[in-house]
Design goal:
This protein is an alpha/beta fold and 307 residues long. It has helices at 2-10, 23-33, 56-64, 98-102, 118-126, 140-153, 157-176, 206-213, 231-237, 254-258, 261-264, 267-271, 279-283, 289-301, and strands at residues 51-54, 71-74, 108-112, 131-134, 186-194, 197-201, 217-218, 226-229, 241-245, 274-277. The two termini are 32 Å apart. It comes from Mesorhizobium opportunistum.
Amino acid sequence: MRSFLNMLALSLPAVRGSILAPMIGLSLAFAALQPAGAAEGIAVFSDRSKIAAIGGSITEIVYALGEEKRLVARDSTSNYPKAALDLPDVGYMRALSPEGVLSVNPTGILALHGSGPREAVDVLKKTSIPFIEVPEHYSHEGILEKVRIVGKALGVDAKAEVLAKELDAKLTAAERRTASIKERKRVLFVLSIQGGKILAAGSDTAADGMVRLAGGVNAIEGFSGYKQLSDEAIITAGPDVILMMSNAGPPVSDDELFGNPSIASTPAGAARKLIRIDGGYLLGFGPRTADAIHDLAVSFYGAQVTD
């Protein structure tokens, strides 16, 4: 799916634009975002009746909190749960148009960090509609932080704390299942193949975070984000496993992947060891991540993963 491919390949943080609205409009918008609880650094919508959710994990969290009735729209990466597909789609989270988001008349915009482009986000932040940005950290704690921020924004702190504790326990259990494994799999996450060149994940990416949580080791070191690798870099990395998304395009066949000379020269290529998992499930860092960690660990280690 193009949305997940672009979401990962760009890996660009959203940049906060300066707000040039008149002082009265600015004061009203700020007041809407900063009621009781603002001292904790977490914003709250004053009117939570019609929220536009931007980012797949944000939409999933809203549903997990049982607050989906507040949603008036979602972005194109928000395709889980299935019921979310019935909501109006305001576009891909990294290619938003202000007109598309504003067309649903939201009373608040809840957006995952990294939404863009910057110019569109700047325009949305200058309107009188409160805009709350949710941080994205590819970690166990990052998921809990998202849940608490979304819950605070929607005025359901207690429900968010219950969900956070449930997810904390599930994540901890999922991570412990690979604690006793000594020989860790070296994993190469391939985002795409362009002109025969492998675009792979370095550090500070969702793929890197998931590989580590599932007990693996990112075979690529020395850079953050996503980068095209030289043949020498791939051979030197020596991955045991290739990991890809099952729904990112353009599709890459097994024959195309393992026909790449550099991939063929690695242990993963010799064994034709490839794991494909749905992008939203694998890299969403939301309510389903504990299950994704378990499934990925089993794909890495099989029966060595403890229950």
